[in-house]
Every structure is written in structure tokens, then in C-alpha cells.
Amino acid sequence: MILVHREEPIAVVQLNRPEALNALSPELMKELVSALEELDRDEKIRCIVLTGSDKAFAAGADLKWMVSHTAKELLAKDPLAIWDRISNVKKPIIAAVSGFCLGGGCELAMMCDMIVASETAKFGQPEINVGIIPGAGGTQRLTHLIGKSKAMEWILTGNIYSAKEAFEAGLVGKVTPAAEYLNEAKKLALKISEKGSIAVAHAKQAILKSFELPLAQGLKEERRLCFELFDTQDQKEGMRAFLEKRKPEFKGR
Hints:
Distance between the termini: 35 Å
CATH superfamily of the largest domain: 2-enoyl-CoA Hydratase, Chain A, domain 1
Largest sheet: 6 strands, mixed
Strand content: 15-25%
Structural class: alpha/beta
Radius of gyration: 19 Å
Shape: globular
Number of helices: 11
């Protein structure tokens, strides 16, 4: 259900459950988390692109396994807990989205660090239409990304929005022609891969902390992470290369 294409220094992870429009079953999520964690440990990989198919990034959670569960069973098993491990991946993850990106699919895209969308992409949190609400971060991340009023509209109506509307709302970073979304995501991944991997990881950590901490604490955390980088070889190489007017050769040390 998961395909991994290594194109060092990047890797493309593809959701591959076409018969169900990449609906996010527990089995698929286990495979996905395992693949992401393995790539996070791989020193040859600097950035990860997560994609689906042209027709669907992921059309949502797999309702077939959810429909018969009770609240008590779900609270005891917490089948969504495994999603939290994606947040611990240190390397940047870029979602390359085409077609349906709904419910759990939209939540998964929001867990990524950037979203590049095909102009054919459709975003939404339609859980309200089947009598529930988002449970894998939709109410929280969407509100942070597009604001309270728009998040309320998206989640309470269950409406579906175009890539252009998602871009204008602030959910999507870039919209491309349908034939270019994956290539554009790869280009972005390669650009990031040119930077020092330790600095990239620290920058990602600092940005994510802004979602969790009050401003004063976030500023202290940013300063700490910045100063830590002055003990790395990459910092010395980067600054010397700038002063010597040459391209730096970062080693991830």
C-alpha cells in the first residue's frame, strides 16, 4: 500500500491504494509511518515528498473499519495515536497533492511541512457529513493555518474547496498545473536538500514550536536552536563559504 522511490538526496513516498482512492486504513498508516521513520534515519535522504495518485492524494479515512466501533473501543485502542509519530520526523516532508484530499487525507497533508497542489486538487474536512468531526488534528491544524472563522466554515459545513481556494486561505503553499505538481514538489525538496541538514532540522523544529508555545517562550526556543548550530561544522563551512564567495559544501555535521 506504500511505494518508496529513493532519488537521493530526496525520497518520494506514494500512497498506493487506488481501489479505495487511498483511503487511510490502519494498515496503510502503519506502513506509511514505518516508511517515513526509516527514511528519517537514512543519512542519504535529506527531504521527503509524500504523494498519492493524480486522482486522489487520499480521499479520507476508511469508513468500513470505523462504522461499527464504539466510543469506548476507540478510546481504549486509540487507532489515531500512530499518526503522532509523523510529527516526530525531523526531515522536511512535502505533500504533493492532486485530486481528492479530504478528511484524514487533508489532515495528513497538514501534518506535512509544505503542500504543493495540482490545480485539480480538492480539499475539505467533510466528517460532519457522516456525523463525526475530524479526529487526527483537523480542528487544530486547520485553525492555525487558515484562522478560526474559515476553519469553522470548512468543518461545520463539510464543504469541499478548490486548490485555488485552499491557496488563498493559506492552507496550500503553491498551486501548479496538473502535470507539474509532483515535479514542483521534487524541485522544492531538492532545493531544501542543498542546505545544511542540521540547520534544516532545527528550523523545522523552531517553526513547529510556534504552534505550541506562547511568543516569549517560542523566541527563547528559537534562540537556543540558533545558537546550538554554532557548534556544527556546517555553520563554519556556510559562513566561510559566504565570505569566500563560493558555494558551501554541507556535510550534516
